[in-house]
Design a protein that fits this description.
The chain has 505 residues and is an alpha/beta fold. 34% of the residues lie in helices and 26% in strands. The longest helix has 16 residues.
Amino acid sequence: MVTSETALAPLVELRDIGKRFPGVVANHDVNVTIRPGTVHALVGENGAGKSTLMKILYGVQRPDDGTVLVDGTEHAFKSPSDAIAVGIGMVFQHFMLADNLTVLENCVLGAERIHGIAGKARAAFVDLGQRFGFDLDPDALVEDLGVAARQRLEIVKVLYRGAQVIILDEPTAVLVPQEVDQLFTNLRDLRASGHSLLFISHKLDEVLAIADDITVMRRGTTVGEAKPGSVTKRQLAELMVGSELPSPETAESTVQTRMMLSLAGVSLVVGERSVLDGIDLTIHKGEVLGIAGVEGNGQTELVEVIMGMTKPTSGAIVLGDVDVTAMSTRGRREAGIGYIPEDRQRHGLLLDAPLWENRILGHQTQPPNARGPWIDRRGARRDTERIVEQYDVRTPSIDTNARALSGGNQQKLIVGREMSGDPVLLMASHPTRGVDVGAQAAIWDHIRDARKAGLAVLLISADLDELIGLSDTIEVILRGRLVGTFDPTTVTPAELGTAMTGGHD
């Protein structure tokens, strides 16, 4: 129980933290104070230094300057094990679960010494679930869980290891509104029990809804603190990036009559499971068609089928006037399909290659990256310089490895690459996931400008406000089927969320 006296003493203090990498100052003079029994939000644009700071607090990296104190005691964490030992846990944005193991086995994995692997472990797991409202079947296979259940399991995992301070990195990025509400209920229960939560998010409305304290970072340092009751989204955005809060709203229709993509009866069966079931859709020049759905309902497979990465079991795919059903991925690329993948690090970039080589990736047969059968290094480097300038990719050099860029700058590089070469169709999977409001606004502007110029866009996003703001039409996908068509000018996020979870007639 947190008393008024103990509430005065900080649980975690980060004092004057500094961290430098070759050519980059990631953190300097960072100060954050986390009170017991509170939700402390950390906000800032990509590249502001949030990830580096969290890695320092969790023991992944060591600071060059400054002090980390927990319960008033100074610590120099050498690994996450050191952080866990004093009650600090972290839930990463990308879940770290073994699909082929059960919920309980995932929870116990690596922590067998705490309660063993049998009766005591099960009892401890069930007790945590009951105390904090996490509805999880310990015997369910993780591969059968939805996204929200996986999120809850990750939180239970850190609680199982004794965490009193829980770092949550973009925890709502893949949740529908109803699932966010449930997560926030769980977080409030944790707060009421005396746990402290460090909540990292770019969704400022959620920050204002859940946080007790807010720290704002910009360009590697802390620039302000606020209480939710005394600050607005617009003011937070201005603190973060020095500009007003962007809006995804599109003023006028640019949809033309010419069809650019048509899917007729496209189905995909994997093993005995129907992943896509009779998908029919069309996208016209100048049209953004949004796809809304809870992750795991066929969006990924839909994109892979259109891109030629997976062959459909049945159905036809037509790009413009050309049937591309049997065409290779390379052929579809050369025919004018741009592709922003949902996971930029796994499928969009070579992290240990310089930016100019990443400019070539997927476009190695086309100018300015190629001259005849040969790679044109000068052309690729020159065009990378153009992308860096036009898309505001913040980097010391085009020879910098992609791994060194923040997530938002990695994403802007990919968007710039895929918008180059005048594509006729853009496949955009979660194009602004995990990016700050500044990078988000820039990506929205580029999509809107390309739409005006006649680009057809298939937009898949977990950000329902983004879908509603950018799309001309929204389709909802559920268990591999398109189950509803919605008008973005009238539909609400709550209505989409209901349809996405099967509650729509």
